[in-house]
């Protein structure tokens, strides 16, 4: 049995990752857990469009490189997040449209992937392009208004920019097959595979609510895998109304176990990334007021019940003293 979550995941050839914020790398309690428990890293914000191309044509990789270098120096792989997205666009991009925006998107993908060529094994090429309105269709955005082919242009550009990188489509609310959004993304991936648009993987963000892990999550992952793409859980957190209590934390632990088990039961599910380490720094309370406590370590860096649950799901015990 292994004694860290990353090592437990690695027993089956999978990874356990976390989002890392460059601004927290000076917090030794944070970096101690980060370096010990994970073998994959995603930059929480530092490789997004506003961070990497603050002025058109002027790239800035200082914060992205801080996360990248920390990860590599600590023996971790890096997922790239994210190249084309309606959100966290720099002001100059928000004001563009039409063919100018389309070209700016292409230039951005080439600039960022060029900088990290050969260094980043997998990229979220396009993030959150589908609508939550129940139609299964695309989200309205300045990128979408450049033409419905913007997603495939992004993927073709990315393949040419770094042919060795695995190219993912990443979204939330696609964990449950019965949701229209899930089927919209599924139909796009199927179409891309049929027409030879280069796509290698789908990321299921999995920003979930305690007690609401979709019962068909494993089957859903398998359906996508059966299209010929790898799948991965990319931004897992399981939030609750705060304050937490023992009952909610137990349910949350069971939920974490279900999610990791779903990945373990799908051969093409290559790993699970949680969207942060400690409840102290989670994005959840900022966007869902009154909710939080969504991660595996609490705000004081104590392991929550979810820790042992994830360890079990990866096939290890969470303590050192067990009998053979
Ligand atoms: C979030 C970050 O965690 C926050 O720090 C930031 O203010 C907003 O973005 N889906 C994604 C992530 O793909 O990039 C988002 O990250 C969370 C939702």
Helix content: 25-40%
Tertiary shape: globular
Largest sheet: 8 strands, parallel, barrel
Radius of gyration, rounded?
19 Å
Widest beta sheet: strand line-up: 1-2-3-4-5-6-8-9
- Give start-end ranges of low-pLDDT stretches: 320-324
How far apart are the termini? 10 Å
Question: Could you give the count of β-strands?
Answer: 10
Q: How would you spell out the order of helices and strands?
A: HEHEHHEHHEHEHEEHEHEHEH
State which percent range the strand residues make up.
15-25%
Number of helices: 12
Describe the protein's architecture and organization.
The structure is a single chain. The radius of gyration is 19 Å and the shape is globular. With 324 residues, the chain is of the alpha/beta class. The termini are close together. Helices cover 38% and strands 18% of the residues. Strands 1-2-3-4-5-6-8-9 form an eight-stranded parallel β-barrel, surrounded by five helices. The protein has helices at 5-10, 28-37, 49-52, 62-73, 91-94, 98-115, 150-161, 180-195, 217-225, 246-264, 284-287, 305-313, and strands at 15-20, 40-43, 77-84, 122-127, 166-171, 201-204, 207-209, 230-241, 269-274, 291-292. (3S,4R)-3-hydroxy-2-oxopiperidin-4-yl beta-D-xylopyranoside (XIL) binds at residues 44-45, 127, 205, 235, 283.
